[in-house]
Amino acid sequence: MSALPPRAADRPVRRRRFRRVPVRIILPNLVTLLALCMGLTAIRFAIEGRFRTAVLAIIAAAILDGLDGRIARALKGTSRFGAELDSLADFVDFGVAPALILYLWNLHEIKSLGWFAALIFATAAALRLARFNVMIDDPDRPSWTSRFFVGMPAPAGACLALLPLYLNLSELAVPTGRAWAPTHIAYLLAIAFLMASRIPHFSGKTLPRIQREYVVFVLFAVATVLLLLATWPMEMLAALCVVYLAMIPFAVRAHNRLQAADEAAAAAREGPPAV
Q1: Whole-number Å distance between alpha carbons of 176 and 180
Q2: Whole-number pLDDT of residue 127
Q3: Domain presence at residue 49
Q4: For residue 269, is it within any domain?
Q5: Is 201 helix (H, G, I), strand (E, B) or coil?
Q6: How many Cα atoms occupy the beta-carbon half-sphere of 84 within 13 Å?
Q7: Which parts of the chain register pLDDT below 50?
Q8: Which stretch of DSSP H or E encloses residue 58?
Q9: CA atoms in the 13 A half-sphere facing the CB of 79
Q10: How far is residue 197 CA from its own chain's centroid?
């Protein structure tokens, strides 16, 4: 007679071993967590009334946010976990933190309306990030769409939303107070609309190739901008915000031109309609 199989309770329990995670996957996530810490620290500085330091923390979070994805792609360390962590960090850094900073700075002068504008901005950032995550998984997108963002990206929206604060902290010393609060609220709502809308913006992911004879001039221009940022950070941030806003019509025109060409090519492939 054959032996009966051992009962489940009598079988030796196998300990589950943790799967080893390579460093190339951990490193981008560490950069994302560092960006998250910068966003939370910006809120702390705003509560303490140190708005200049809070602004610099948001800018640092934006720089780190731009680095983590590039590091992940360079090291081939992209993962679904990293993408979800990046979205959560972006919502805090570029949705919650700027809204709270602006409310603590001047929007609180008109309490209910100022808080409403802060809520709208944070909600628009959440919608923008959710739409971005959905569009990444779309396999039918034309290749040229990678040149554009649909709606203002969250890091750019956060930096642009702080423009009134740049002007106040700069040499211009634009005044604040209850009289200026409605203007700041209207501007914040406009940036929230640009984030939640489907207006295209240049992505900056696909940079054009620079001819060899122009490399020196490009390096000189970049070095000049960095030196100006180090010397007059608030003035340069305000100027960069104005330049970014001025580029939106050009992005819309370039997007519409490529979309029309793509639709014309699709119609040509289908051929004339059957009679």
Answers
A1: 6
A2: 93
A3: no
A4: no
A5: strand
A6: 3
A7: 1
A8: helix 51-75
A9: 15
A10: 15
> Cβ of 244: how many Cβ atoms within 10 Å?
17
Residue 144, exposed/middle/buried by CB under 10 A (0-12, 13-18, 19+)? middle
The domain containing residue 171 runs over which residues? 93-263
Q: Which residues is 150 bridged to in the sheet?
A: 200
pLDDT confidence of residue 56:
94
Q: In angstroms, rounded to a whole number, what is the distance separating the alpha carbons of residues 61 and 40?
A: 10
Whole-number Å distance between alpha carbons of 218 and 210: 8
The number of helices, as runs of H, and strands, as runs of E, in the chain is 10, 2
Evaluate the CA torsion angle 81, 87, 88, 93 in order and state its sign. Answer: positive
Has residue 99 been placed in a domain?
yes
CA-nearest of 198, 191, 194, 71 to 134 is 198
Q: What is the DSSP letter of 110?
A: S
Task: Tally the domains of the chain.
Answer: 1
- The single residue listed with the structure tokens 């100027």 is 239
d(CA 126, CA 87): 9
pLDDT of residue 3: 54
- Residue 52 located in a structural domain: no
The set of residues, in sequence order, having a beta carbon less than 8 Å from that of 142 and lying 6+ positions away, is 262
CA atoms of 79 and 25, how far apart (whole Å): 7
Note the Cα 268 to chain centre separation in Å.
37
Asked whether 82 and 25 are in contact (CB, 8 A), the reply is yes
pLDDT value of residue 84: 87
Amino acid letter at 262? D
Nearest Cα to Cα of residue 184 among 174, 195, 194: 174
3-state secondary structure of 16: coil
